[in-house]
Design brief:
By secondary structure, the chain is an alpha+beta fold. It has 2 domains: about 120 residues, 60s Ribosomal Protein L30, Chain: A; about 170 residues, PurM-like C-terminal domain (Phosphoribosyl-aminoimidazole Synthetase, Chain A, domain 2), CATH 3.90.650. It is globular, with a radius of gyration of 20 Å. It starts with 7 loop residues before the first helix and ends in an 11-residue tail after the last strand. The relative contact order is 0.16. It binds adenosine-5'-diphosphate and magnesium ion. Magnesium ion binds next to strand 8.
Length: about 350
C-alpha cells in the first residue's frame, strides 16, 4: 500500500503549526502557555518568563543585495523583541544562532553584530549565547528572546471581549512598499550597474523595511497610563492575518473601518506610483512590527490623545464575521493573505 503524502501547501504555515501543536504533550505545570501565541509563558514564581524564537533566511526573508548586514543584525533582534512586547513583557536576554557560507568575511560578521549590539542597547537585552555554523544555502539567522512580565499583566491573543476597541500603533503597509521599491531598484541596477539607486524619495518606507522597531515604547506607555489591553499580537504577517488570529483565539468577530487605518503619506504616494492599493498593503503587506491590541471601552479615555495609537474598529460576536467597512461603506470580509511561505 502506498503511504499517504500530504503537500505542506495543502495545510499552509498555520495549518502545519496546528498539526505540530496537536502532537505535543506538556509535561511541566510551569509551561503555562505553549504553541499558538506570540511567545510562550513559563511560570517563574512571582512572574512569567516569556520565550520567543524566529528565523531569518537569505533568499526568503532578506536579500543581501539591498539589506546591509548591520541593519539585518538589528532587524533579527527587533522582530523577536516585538513578540516579547506582544505579551506585554520586557526583554531581558537573547541568543543568536548564525549559519554562514564561506563567502562571508570576519568584517561581514562584525557588521552583523554591530547591528545586534545596537538593538540590544536600544531594547535593553543582553546577548548571552548562540551557535555558529557554516551553511550550504546562504545566510541563516535564528534569534531567541527571553523576557519577563508580572503574571497579572501578561496578555494573550485570546482575552478580547465583545465590544472591545481594536487599536493599532504606528502606521501600516510602509515596510511592504519599501520592499517593492528595493526590489525595483535592484532590477534597475542588475540591468544597468551604472545606475545608482534613487531612494531619497522613499526614505521612510525603505527604512521601515530595513530597520523595523519593536514597540517597547508603547508597552512602557500603556503601563504608565494604567491600561492593560485585553488581547494583543504583533503585526508581522499583515493586519488582516493578525486580526484573524485575534478573532480565532478570542472566539469573536472583528469589524474594522478602512478610513481608520493609519497609513503614511509616503506609503500612499508610492502605492499610487506602483499601482498597489495602500489599504491592500496595510492589510496584507506584513513586516510592520506594530502592535495590534484590544482595550475595554472604559480605557479609551486614557488613550484617546495618544498620537501613535489608532482606533480602527471593535470586537463583535463571532456570527457577525470578520469584516472591513470600506471608505465607500461596503462590507468586505477579511481574509488572511500574509506571508504564508508554503502556499505562495
Ligand atoms: P509570530 O509570527 O508571532 O512569530 P508564528 O506564526 O511564527 O508567530 O508562530 C505561532 C506560534 O507557533 C508560536 O507560538 C510559535 O512558537 C509556534 N511555532 C511556530 N513554528 C513552530 C514549530 N516548528 N514547532 C513548534 N512551534 C512552532
Ligand atoms: Mg508575533
Amino acid at each position: 500500500m502506498e503511504e499517504k503524502r500530504t503537500e505542506i501547501s495543502e495545510l499552509g504555515e498555520f495549518g502545519l503549526i496546528d498539526r505540530i501543536s496537536q502532537t505535543v504533550e506538556i509535561q511541566h505545570p510551569e509551561s503555562v502557555l505553549g504553541i499558538g501565541d506570540d511567545a510562550a509563558l513559563i511560570d517563574s514564581g512571582d512572574h512569567y518568563t516569556v520565550l520567543s524564537t524566529d528565523m531569518l533566511l537569505e533568499g526568503i526573508h532578506f536579500d543581501l543585495a539591498y539589506m546591509p548586514l548591520q541593519h539585518l543584525g538589528y532587524k533579527a533582534v527587533a522582530i523577536n523583541i516585538s513578540d516579547i512586547a506582544a505579551m506585554n513583557a520586557v526583554p531581558k536576554q537573547i541568543t543568536v544562532n548564525i549559519g554562514m557560507s564561506n563567502r562571508f568575511s570576519v568584517e561581514a560578521v562584525e557588521a552583523f553584530y554591530a547591528g545586534v549590539r545596537a538593538a540590544c542597547e536600544n531594547f535593553k537585552a543582553d546577548l548571552v549565547g548562540g551557535d555558529t555554523s557554516s551553511s550550504a544555502s546562504g545566510f541563516v539567522i535564528s534569534v531567541t528572546a527571553i523576557g519577563t512580565v508580572k503574571k497579572e499583566k501578561a496578555i494573550r491573543r485570546s482575552g478580547a471581549q465583545s465590544g472591545d476597541i481594536i487599536c493599532v500603533t504606528g502606521d501600516l503597509g510602509a515596510a511592504y512598499l519599501g520592499l517593492q521599491v528595493l526590489e525595483r531598484e535592484k532590477q534597475v541596477f542588475l540591468t544597468n550597474p551604472e545606475m545608482q539607486p534613487q531612494l531619497e524619495k522613499y526614505d521612510y518606507i525603505v527604512g521601515r523595511q530595513l530597520r523595523p522597531q519593536a514597540r517597547m515604547d508603547i508597552i512602557h506607555e500603556l503601563d504608565e497610563l494604567g491600561v492593560v489591553p485585553t488581547s494583543m499580537i504583533d503585526i508581522s504577517d499583515g493586519l488582516g492575518s493578525e486580526l484573524l488570529h485575534l478573532s480565532r483565539a478570542s472566539s469573536l468577530g472583528v469589524r474594522i473601518f478602512e478610513d481608520k487605518l493609519p497609513i503614511d503619506k509616503q506609503t500612499y504616494d508610492t502605492g499610487y506610483e506602483l499601482g498597489i492599493d495602500a489599504t491592500t498593503a496595510a492589510l496584507n503587506g506584513g513586516e510592520d512590527y506594530e502592535l495590534l491590541f484590544t482595550i475595554r471601552e472604559n480605557d479609551l479615555e486614557k488613550l484617546k490623545n495618544h498620537a501613535d495609537i489608532h482606533f480602527i474598529g471593535d470586537m463583535q460576536s463571532l456570527k457577525d464575521g470578520n469584516i472591513m467597512v470600506t471608505k465607500g461603506e461596503n462590507v468586505v470580509s477579511i481574509k488572511a493573505q500574509g506571508w504564508d511561505h508554503y502556499s505562495r
